[in-house]
Amino acid sequence: MATSRSSTELLEQIEKLSGQTVSDCYQCGCCTSGCPIGEAMDPPPSKAVRLLQLGEAPELLDSDGIWMCASCLVCGTRCPRAVDYARIAEACRVLVLRSKQSRVDPDTVTGPELEEIPQQAFIAAFRKSSV
Amino acid sequence: MADYEPKIVGFLCNWCTYAGADLAGTSRMQYPPNMRPIRVMCSGAVDSVYILRALLEGADGVFMGGCHPGDCHYVSGNYKARRRMVLFNSVMQSLGLESDRVWLRWISAAEGRKFADTITEMTEHLQKKGPSPFKEKWEV
Amino acid sequence: MTKYTYYPGCTLYTKARNLDICARKAAEKVGFELVEMPSWNCCGAIYNAASDDLAAQVGPVRNLAKASQLGDKLVTLCAACHNVLKRVQNRLDQPGNEVESERLKTFVDEKYERPVKVLHYLEVLKQEIGWDNIKEKVTKPLGGLKVASYYGCLIVRPKEVLEFDDPENPQVMDDLMRVLGAAPTRFDFKAECCGGYLVVNRRDVAKSASKKILDNAKAWGAEAIVTTCPLCQYNLDKLRAVTDGSIPVFYFTQLLGLAVGLAQDELGLEHNAGDPVGFLKSKGLL
Amino acid sequence: MPNDECRLTGTQPPADAQSTIDNRQSKIPRVGVFVCHCGINIAGVVKIPELLERVGTMSGVVVTKDYKYCCSDPGQQMIRDSIKSDKLDRVIVACCSPTLHETTFRNACGEAGLNPYLCEIANIREQCAWVTADKDEATTKACGIVRTTLTKVVHDQPLEALTVPINKRALVVGAGIAGIQAALDIANAGYEVVLVEKEPSIGGHMAQLSETFPTLDCSQCILTPRTVETGRHPKIRLMTYSEIDSVSGYVGNFKVKVRQKARYVDFKTCTGCGACLEKCPGRTESWFERGLVRGKAIYRLLPQAVPNRPVIDAKACIYLTKGKCGVCAKVCPTGAIRYDDTDKFVEEEVGAIVLATGYELFDATKLGSYGVGRVPDVIDGLAFERLLSASGPTSGDVKRPSDGKVPKKIVFVQCAGSRDSTTGMPYCSKICCMYTAKQAILYRHRVHDGQATICYIDVRTPGKGFEEFYKRATDDGIQYLRGKVSKIFREGDKVMVWASDTLAGRKVELEADMVVLATAVVANPDGVALARKLKTQIDAHGFMTEAHPKLRPVETLTAGFFLAGCGQGPKDIPETVAQASAAAAKVLAMFGNTRLTHSPTTAEVDEEICVGCGYCERTCAYDAVKVDPARKKAAVNAALCEGCGACAVACPSGAMTHKNFTKKAIFEMADQF
Amino acid sequence: MKGTLKVDAKDPEGTIRGLFARWLKEDRLSAILTPAYSASGTATMALVSNPEKLAAAAPLMPAMGVNSASIVAEIARESSPNAKVGLFLRSCELRAVVELMKLKQVMPDSLVLIGVDCPGTYKAAGFRNVRGKDADFDNKHVREQLGFAGNVDFRMGCQMCEYPKPLVYDLNVGFIGLDPDKELWVEAATDKGKALLEGVEVNESEEPAGRKAALADLSAKRKAGTARRIEELDKAMLGPEKLAQYFSDCLNCHNCMNVCPVCYCRECFFDSDTFQRDISEHVRVSLRKGVTRMPSETLLFHLTRMNHMMTSCVQCGICEDSCPVTIGLATLFKKVSQNAQQAFEYVSGRSLEEPLPLTTFRETEFLKVGEE
Q1: CB within 8 Å: D652 and E276
Q2: Is the overall model pTM greater than 0.80, yes or no?
Q3: Could you give all domains of chain D from N- to C-terminal order, each with its CATH number?
Q4: Cβ <8 Å between A117 and C199
Q5: Where are the beta strands (DSSP E) in D280-408?
Q6: To the nearest whole number, what is the mean pLDDT of chain E?
């Protein structure tokens, strides 16, 4: 698999920001198995790490999956190789956000329920997914 | 200092580091010839007086090689060597003497590469440091 | 009466008043006092795990510095605040982290005087007060109410930083419920995620994650759920319409308050969804 | 440029004063140095004539010779001749590593009448010629190596190899299939064996198994003949319900103290009729049945128990705990019950010890998300073996523990604690892939419409017939799902499994009636404790360490201790049996000698100097040094001493000496550069 | 059991002698080792068995000629079940006794360790002149406690001592932080110690706060002083050049070793034939460097000795007192041994249970050593 230069750099940045080493992962899939929102996450954690292992960091940064992780840390807690995917996802989001691209535009979030959602959820959501 | 060649006395434990040095040889790995190997049965059998003797008599460095912790052929000799080394370093540092002329390294029988690299690294390190101040300064 | 510096956080002043009010009043009943920290600021709501993102930690650092001037312990109640403050505190005082720690401290004017132990209210109950002492204060035992204790993710993980309880099968809240006279049920989803803040833009995801939690609690025979996180409470309680059949979700402080004799109007039940009053009456607890 | 030893020739003192040797020796040494070309291996780099010339000037050297291959017959003959004609009393052979030809040349010296320990090797091949390209540098280094060796050889003393008699009895610890096999092999060769087993019956884990992979032989059927043979073998002294209390002595001559646990049943009087077993009201956890059924306080491990005698579990016995009951004593027709029984100690003397302490399964309750202990229908592999076994609690019918229903869907979870460096063990347990496939196949034999799903990370089948067996499993419709299970929980009467299909890249939720965990194999904790007590090496996970991973796989670094079975690492039955026979062969090889030779380069004490401070005693890893408290003198038991030299270094006064590695010798070697 | 003991006639030393007399008379001790004055007034040690002969005993004498652990090693090398000897010794002496017990050079069974507070001592040599004709000098000395910490006439070892109160004892007699004209502090830590206090009128109490504070204060001041001295030492000694200079006067007399209480070998390694070189060796070595200093092994001796006994050094400084060329050994060994012992979390003489650092190890310690 050809690895472009920028993708190598991206991987380096992701590893640095997350403090994780993607080659530690042996693709057992435990993170995906245990992810409480694994069905909705695309790619699911193990596949996301696989993309990084294969040098496909740009594809991962473009994906939905990284925005779905709610940082519940179940994957990292149970990972037999002590890889914390939540931190990898965080690093990916940070890289996107730092290029000034918001995932969620606060103005577009609407709905009658918004009145009753605890504000911590808004702060968290916008901190995680908006510039 | 161009013609300065560091002299290193090496104490190699019979079971791991000596065998590792043999493996470096069998694999034809080249390393500088500055180290004179002395085969001892165990790193736990290297007395600090040997190291001091070598240093005071003009060696520029002393190398000690033993089995990795947990792998000692004699159960725990390398753990004892490690404690001796802690004491030795503490005494040297308390006196303001360089303890980086004395290297203790764990090198197994399978680590020929590591042996060759370590001796190369140590020789280069001592080359950079220059001759041991001990040999001249402690004479008349 | 021992006084503790208390950090309520924003949600406890608004949407989760029912978590906070009972906590303060119940504390006095069981023998300690929560003294609210003056001029606290937002904790940030979520911990930023990127290794270089120091700016995100400034808010919590300021809170911790202020708290350090008041004492060596800081009590939290909201699971999110607890998670953030505890993790930032860890970052400040972890050996080997001195350089970063010093940098962080330079961001705020307040002097960080000493390491502050960030304690969750439940930890205060267990470690500082003790179950036996609480048991003595129970005037209205909960009559064997079958409750499933739901901890969520934020107070148990990461385990080595939070040092709260077993992250797979935590027990603290179960123990408390037992002391209060309830019958905690087994429950396999004690520490699974409810979907958290995804409810803001991915309501569907939060709904399905919450449904699994509620389903499992009901499968184990739970009549009610207790929790300590406003967001968990919201996702489980307000979103429960999605589940077939209702099961009330209380804050543990509400049941604590009830058991130690707070009056009905002190429990903040009006902030819960459904008919919690009717439920408690049907169980003979009101 | 040649070193200073050559410059010294100009100031050579008169012969009677010239000596670098120990002053205690009156004789001036006559050292012969023989330089081997090793074809071009040495001679191609080291300048042999220059080396010979420089070495020839060194003090003490009386002759230098070189030869193309010193290790050849003519080469050895050259050395032998020179020893005689040049009246040599020391020999240095400058050649390859001593690990290759030290023995060769020492023997050659011995044949010429020179004490072999006065011959030393200067390693100028592996540590000089082969690692140094520059010829001058190599020559100088070779010269230095010879000089260092010369310094040693002149300090060497003639030594006699020690010999000790061998007590030709063996102790085998653990009577699983490994211990049984080793004991039978040794006993069948005509030597006595003491076989110690901590459980009341022999057989170990193999007795728990249903059928074995990949042949599906009935485990009981192939094991029972062996256990019966062991039980009545005239050369095997079987000590069940017993543990090793202590071992002292050394290879060939161990003294073993065995603690025979109180059985409360007189084995001589008991006929094994089993009347007591039926009436006993006391209940206990059954180790053998993996908690699937409650055992009785008086029990036999299994119906085919060897010896076929019950014992009483004192913790569960109502009479022994509360003083009431006594039913077993009342119904026993031969009056064999002894409530006043106590632990007894028996001493045995043996020459060799085989450690076959076996394995246990990882404590799966530590895998918090797998629900073990919370969800009754999550069991481990050994428990499932009991469910499959015809002699098990369900007579071989697969029924789940919670309600006795026949499970229609079983999920098998592999790597439950294996290959997991965070909550489990980092290694692969080696046998689980195969036994899981076997269990799934056997389940489908018992429950024809049953569905079996195996969640795995990688399927590992390196063994004869293994890959074929794996194919048999997939052919049988057993579903393999690649992905490690994260969570197991109960919902109603179903067991839910959160798995994933990494090949399809998605999360999967499985609904099952029962879940079987292939829990990691770990070293038996009792074996780990024993290894610690015996000071034999164990690895980070408690598995006993072999002397060499390739070439000495059944020996330990402690002479006289041998390894067999899973105590050394996870392995299947054929491998275990092979290793047990190998260990037995090693014991027999030892017993083939009348005496054992032991290297004489041991420690010795100069009593004149020793003040009995005990540094040496506390340093020795082999208990070979003891200080006599009354005399305040240390003494070395040469048979126990492995010759590491640590005690000599620990001794500050120099009272302790390591023979032929004396402080004076090494002290002066450190000065030769 | 602990508490205060009333002092009669403003004579604390006399009160202690009274205790000695009682123990000897009642056969609780067969003899007691105590500081004493010889007939000519020199400071020495005495083994007193006859209570009538106690007049010379000077339990509070502020002078030290040898570290008495050496004496104890002579008299208690073997256990002697019938004798019961009390050792009335100072902290550094008892710490050395403890090390020697671990080194099996002192048998504990027939000994009772009676510790006494020691605020510092003068050298025994010449002490006669310091004391003059003042028979009450010793009592005066303990009364005027203010100068303890800063007394520059004390032995250098004492000036750096941070353990004025012994660490291991059966019975401890103290006066620091009390008014010794009125009362002494006694504290029995073991049954042996309690047996000595039986029948003695002790006013039982907890250790007075004032005493604790005084001890801590003395200790702290000494530590600060030590730090200063080590700083000065470093200026004079650190590095190969200066170190050689520091030891350049050494005569190789080995006095420092001979008086050292924890240098317990019968024959020093340095007197063994390992160090005997013949003329050709000497010439060879000289040839290599062009010139060799003779005697040749002085630095090797000191460095090796440090490797041999720094973990057991009790920092009493008696080596310095005995050095004929006044090499500053006390401060040097204070620094080196303190560092060495800290590396192993060991304090020599602190406890009988702690194993000697070089006789033990943990698999998980010093993980960086050998791994760089």
Answers
A1: no
A2: no
A3: 22-155 (3.40.50), 162-261+343-358+527-593 (3.50.50.60), 269-341 (no CATH), 361-522 (3.50.50.60), 599-671 (3.30.70.20)
A4: yes
A5: 283-285, 294-296, 298-299, 311-312, 344-350, 352-355, 359-361, 378-380
A6: 93
